[in-house]
Amino acid sequence: MIGPSSSHTGAVVRIGRTARGLFGEQAEKVIITFYNSFSRTYEGHGSDRAILAGLLDMAPDDERIRDSHQHAKDAGLEYHFKVVFNASSLHPNAIRIEQFKGERKQNVLGISRGGGLISIKEIDGFTCSFSAQVPTIIFTAKDVHGSIAFITDIIAHEDCNIATMTVDRSGKYDMAKLVLELDSEVRPLTLEYLRSLDWIENVTYLKPTT
User: Closest Cα partner for 95 from 147, 52, 140, 156?
Assistant: First the structure.
């Protein structure tokens, strides 16, 4: 990785790269908020360069990280940094990434757990918890009866084991977010089938980030 810190630099690249994967493309504009410890150290530890690098889909060992401010400008990515010094409800090393492109927008909260490890804790207001270290599927779907059982049965027919599952919903029979971390990859055909179902609004498949 490009240093100086595994938690404040390396992990931050991974948070940015995961957020880009969730958005599905490069945004036109991003607003990045550093909380607590990050708010005090983000410039000295290179977290500002790291998060931009991740949003540009660079890996933690990419030499271009050092010049990511310029690379972001060259790519047409408008970026703004904000700080919140005392957010007692959040992890000491938390980052919020708001991405915008045309009418699309997305809000992701990630944390650095130390040693380069991360966890994504929130997507568009839905609570979740995944590491981006294994294949991960994120479903946005209507909260219909039997939906989770149906999806997990499809995954089981792939001979794929579910390592972790988190579910959150905006209300009963409203929209829900289901996140599955898997022990192996899923075929594109299976993902396309799941995307074709009328009660599933979106399916995002993330391969492990390095």
Answer: 52
Instruction: Measure the CA–CA gap between 156 and 162, rounded to whole angstroms.
Output: 8
pLDDT in tens for each of the 210 residues of the chain?
666 667 768 899 999 999 999 999 999 999 999 999 888 888 888 899 999 999 999 988 888 988 999 999 999 999 999 999 988 889 999 999 999 999 999 999 999 998 889 999 999 999 999 999 999 999 999 999 999 999 999 999 888 899 999 999 988 878 999 999 999 999 999 999 999 999 999 999 999 876
Question: Are 13 and 117 in a shared domain?
Answer: yes
Q: Torsions phi, psi of 164, nearest 5? A: -140, 155
Domain that holds residue 151: 136-206
What residue type is assigned to position 30 of the chain? V
Domain count, the chain: 2
What CATH number is associated with residue 188? 3.30.70.260
What is this structure's pTM? 0.92
Same domain, 190 and 107: no
Decide: 132 and 210 in contact? Cβ < 8 Å: no
Please indicate, yes or no, whether residues 115 and 19 belong to a single structural domain of this protein: yes
